[in-house]
UniProtKB/TrEMBL annotation:
CDD domains: SDR_c (cd05233)
A Pfam family matched in the record: adh_short_C2
Organism: Longivirga aurantiaca
Domain of life: Bacteria
Protein name: SDR family oxidoreductase
């Protein structure tokens, strides 16, 4: 039986849909309080209705890469629930498909700022507000592309690889404070974010996976909840591939 998270509170960035919404649901099912974030208030309202968790779930709208939004969210969570035991860095962007040789510098900077630096900045606020004295768990959403690059996905894969290295470094630095850091690295999951890789081509995508299907948000959401909870209390600095066996094959064509 999964460990209870009753009395704990999680912030899930990018929690209005997809993998991170599934993670929020999985932690709520374990008894946690959850704050989801996202850029669009309407999507957040729909997500809260889907979660149907009453006063155990709240939402704060804003851009994860902006300091003011991060500060507002942390302050709101502390005022509402009194703790921040879990941080799920789920926000990521992938605005560029193509060769690294043609990657515009401003796009590269935007991707790094959102996919890597924002994760560190979110943690620093959570550490100061609660985790430094009480411990906690941080779960970063990477991608299977950290193991092998995919065609046209070089820039995205590089930022996710940096996120994994950040996970490992912080796991080492913060272990004495009992703050754990882990990451999940999914291959193609049937979300809007990854629609380019599966929509309209589902049979061919499924055939590429030894297990016979692409991923579902819940496949990754449950793994995130595992890392967030005390079920993984002696695990830190690890990255879990969630890929239906794709990395066992000799050809990797899509690692969103």
């Amino acid at each position: 039986m999964p460990a209870s998270m009753t009395g704990q509170t999680a912030i899930v960035t990018g929690g209005s849909r997809g993998i991170c919404l599934a993670a929020a649901k999985a932690m709520l099912d374990r008894g946690a309080n959850v704050c989801i974030t996202g850029r669009h208030e309407e999507q957040l309202a729909e997500a809260l209705a889907h979660l149907a968790a009453g006063n155990r779930a709240i939402a704060v709208a804003g851009h994860a890469a902006e300091a003011a939004h991060r500060e507002e969210t942390v302050a709101t969570v502390m005022a509402t629930f009194g703790s921040i035991d879990v941080l799920v860095n789920g926000v990521g962007i992938n605005p560029y498909y193509g060769s690294l040789s043609d990657l515009p510098e401003d796009v590269a900077i935007k991707m790094y700022r959102t996919n890597v630096l924002a994760a560190l900045e979110w943690f620093k606020l959570c550490e100061k507000a609660w985790m430094a004295e009480h411990g906690g768990s941080v779960v970063n959403l990477a991608a299977a592309g950290v193991y092998r690059g995919g065609p046209l996905l070089g820039a995205y894969c590089v930022t996710k690889a940096a996120l994994v290295r950040l996970t490992e470094q912080l796991a080492l630095e913060k272990a004495p404070l009992r703050i754990r850091f882990n990451a999940v690295a999914p291959a193609t999951v049937r979300t809007k974010f990854a629609a380019k890789f599966w929509e309209g081509n589902e049979e061919a995508v499924a055939a590429a996976y030894p297990i016979g299907r692409a991923g579902e948000p819940e496949d990754v959401g449950e793994a995130i909840a595992f890392f967030a909870s005390n079920d993984s209390s002696w695990i830190t600095g690890q990255t879990l591939a969630i890929d239906g066996g794709l990395l066992l094959t000799t050809s990797v064509d899509s690692l969103a």
